[in-house]
């Protein structure tokens, strides 16, 4: 089945979200028909870059095994997109994490990361990498909280540069590496 997650979540995944919320929330890999809803959620989660809908359809198809959707009452409340970089087999690279404004601060973002690390698509990954702009406090806290709970080192360095790479259109993205996990 393309969208099944392991039936037994990891201990880390269980610890992130309260029991009541856990019971209300379903975590699964996306399918093609999720593409539009994912596009809307990401659009509504500033400061994330708005993607083309085509890009979200690709994520929900070719990259479904390393992406996770969280639903409550059939509503998409959380999303994480990730992939295994072809030249870096020991890494899982997280592109975007989005939690709907009504569901923030409950541990859902961290739970999505835990579900991702526990799923088969992340098997063998020693490092989690992502990029964060300096001003995204929620994102820094989310990833440092993950590193802390895994007792894993976390480091960062400038990667996609504001002027050199983005032509001044976007703040510098810092490459964050967590691991070895
Ligand atoms: C970043 C985001 C995904 C966090 O989701 P969330 O479900 O609210 O996060 P959690 O409840 O799992 O919190 C994880 C940690 O981050 C902290 N945190 C969450 N929001 C925060 C904020 N606005 N400011 C500071 N810290 C914050 C929590 O206190 C928690 O820390 P702790 O584990 O040390 O107690 C969510 O705010 C969001 O979708 N933001 C818009 C999109 C974005 O910036 N995505 C991240 C870039 S990829």
UniProtKB/TrEMBL annotation:
<dbReference type="InterPro" id="IPR016181">
    <property type="entry name" value="Acyl_CoA_acyltransferase"/>
</dbReference>
<feature type="domain" description="N-acetyltransferase">
    <location>
        <begin position="25"/>
        <end position="181"/>
    </location>
</feature>
<dbReference type="InterPro" id="IPR012772">
    <property type="entry name" value="Ectoine_EctA"/>
</dbReference>
<dbReference type="InterPro" id="IPR000182">
    <property type="entry name" value="GNAT_dom"/>
</dbReference>
<comment type="pathway">
    <text>Amine and polyamine biosynthesis; ectoine biosynthesis; L-ectoine from L-aspartate 4-semialdehyde: step 2/3.</text>
</comment>
<dbReference type="Pfam" id="PF00583">
    <property type="entry name" value="Acetyltransf_1"/>
</dbReference>
<keyword id="KW-0808">Transferase</keyword>
<dbReference type="GO" id="GO:0033816">
    <property type="term" value="F:diaminobutyrate acetyltransferase activity"/>
</dbReference>
<dbReference type="GO" id="GO:0019491">
    <property type="term" value="P:ectoine biosynthetic process"/>
</dbReference>
<comment type="similarity">
    <text>Belongs to the acetyltransferase family. EctA subfamily.</text>
</comment>
<protein>
    <recommendedName>
        <fullName>L-2,4-diaminobutyric acid acetyltransferase</fullName>
        <ecNumber>2.3.1.178</ecNumber>
    </recommendedName>
</protein>
<keyword id="KW-0012">Acyltransferase</keyword>
């Amino acid at each position: 089945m393309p969208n099944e997650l392991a039936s037994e979540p990891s201990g880390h995944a269980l610890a992130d979200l309260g029991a009541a919320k856990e019971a209300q929330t379903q975590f699964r890999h996306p399918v093609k028909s999720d593409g539009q809803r994912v596009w809307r959620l990401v659009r509504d989660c500033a400061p994330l870059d708005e993607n083309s809908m085509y890009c979200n359809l690709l994520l929900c198809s070719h990259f479904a095994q390393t992406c996770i959707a969280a639903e409550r009452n059939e509503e998409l409340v959380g999303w994480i997109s990730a992939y295994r970089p072809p030249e870096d087999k020991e890494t899982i690279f997280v592109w975007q994490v989005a939690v709907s404004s009504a569901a923030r601060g409950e541990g859902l973002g961290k739970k999505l990361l835990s579900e991702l690390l526990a799923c088969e698509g992340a098997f063998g990954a020693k490092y989690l990498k992502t990029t964060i702009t300096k001003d995204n406090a929620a994102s820094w806290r989310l990833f440092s909280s993950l590193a802390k709970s895994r007792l894993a080192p976390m480091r960062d360095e400038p990667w996609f540069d504001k002027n050199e790479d983005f032509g001044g259109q976007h703040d510098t993205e810092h490459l964050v590496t967590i691991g070895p996990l």
